[in-house]
Amino acid sequence: MAAPHKITTLLFDCDNTLVLSEELAFEACAELMNEICQAKDVTLSFTGETLIQEFVGMNFRGMLNKLREEHKDIALSDEEVESYVKKEEDAVIAKLKAALKPCPGVDAELEKLAEHKKYHLAVVSSSALRRVKASITKVGQDKFFNGEHVFSAATSLPTPTSKPDPAIYLHAMEVLGKKAGECVAVEDSKSGTMSATRAGIKVVGYVGPYPPEKRSEMTKVLSDAGALVVMEDWAEFESCLDKIEAGSV
């Protein structure tokens, strides 16, 4: 058994951890990705589902950079990338404002955490800051998070990046004045889990938004990526956190 941990800070991923945004966001991404392929005369076609399978946990800039690396005939200039990133952000936010919902059960846990005031709460996401703030505001979760303590790998850093790069977690801890040993992150993706663990942060994995038939597979993926414990439902969060604090995982 590991030594007990004094946890002071909880760092939440946003997409498909706090809000059910991935499906909506990837629909918008797929439409724009297909537009790019058409403009470059490349015979690739994407759907929201195929993009989720390949790029979950990665922001749109990261997707475009990976696309450029894997398909050399997609010659996007840095200026074009920035233009498409802005278009994607606008398209995704429009879809989120129309139909976004919170992950089942998360609001009840956030209410309990806010009432007890035991932990500092922050959001650490790969997505653009405007999108993250629009998401938590749409579902009423902004009341749980100090607006200055919402962090974006795409926006908050001097050089934009994406998870699994640990830079955004390292930045969040620096701003919050926290050390990795006193933090726990909640992540639903391999890239997000790797980002937090590479920053030295303990991770609770969350597989609730995945289809039931994929949850066992994703539990292994997140565990292999470094998650100490994995939950299917937010009702399990308190017990997961207790295990980490007790050093039993």
From TrEMBL:
<dbReference type="InterPro" id="IPR036412">
    <property type="entry name" value="HAD-like_sf"/>
</dbReference>
<dbReference type="GO" id="GO:0016791">
    <property type="term" value="F:phosphatase activity"/>
</dbReference>
<dbReference type="Pfam" id="PF13419">
    <property type="entry name" value="HAD_2"/>
</dbReference>
<dbReference type="InterPro" id="IPR041492">
    <property type="entry name" value="HAD_2"/>
</dbReference>
<dbReference type="InterPro" id="IPR006439">
    <property type="entry name" value="HAD-SF_hydro_IA"/>
</dbReference>
<dbReference type="InterPro" id="IPR023214">
    <property type="entry name" value="HAD_sf"/>
</dbReference>
<keyword id="KW-0378">Hydrolase</keyword>
<protein>
    <submittedName>
        <fullName>Haloacid dehalogenase-like hydrolase protein</fullName>
    </submittedName>
</protein>
<dbReference type="InterPro" id="IPR023198">
    <property type="entry name" value="PGP-like_dom2"/>
</dbReference>
<dbReference type="InterPro" id="IPR044999">
    <property type="entry name" value="CbbY-like"/>
</dbReference>
